[in-house]
Specification:
By secondary structure, the protein is mainly α. The protein has eight helices and two strands; from the N terminus they run ααααβαααβα. Strands 1-2 form a two-stranded parallel ribbon. Helix 1 runs antiparallel to helix 3, helix 2 packs across helix 3 and helix 5 packs across helix 6. It is globular, with a radius of gyration of 18 Å.
Length: 160
Amino acid sequence: MPALRQLFGEAIVQPDGTLDRGAMRTRVFSDPAAKRRLEMLLHPLIDAEARREAALPTTSPVVVFDVPLLAESMHWRQRVDRVLVVDCSPQTQVERVTQRPGWTHDIAQQAIAGQASRAARRAIADAVILNDGIGLDALDAAVDGVWQLWQPLAQHPVKQ
């Protein structure tokens, strides 16, 4: 919070000292320079934490990263063996995002417009699951299907 406060001022701080997510969201999705400043602060921290967590001892040969901005951060594509993209139409994206507290239709559209295109996300994928008009059970089954295909390959990574 101190670094966020220094970069963006008191307008993004709630009275209790925590981040005002709505104010931050409005700021970064309406001001590309503010978004870049936020990314320059957060991305190195996120990268360091992901590396730390991936290095933790485990009995599994597989480490799964959930990287919402993978297509925008291509260094991630070079660090992983396979990419699964869960895809949906822009209309579905807007509908789902606006169901979250504090997200308006305009802010959702600005956020989506500031991300890699649907085609760019699909282009970096080794597998794509279409998540339009299906429920969580069907999505879970589709993910399990990809896992069943990829699990034998876990012992033999294929660096891109």
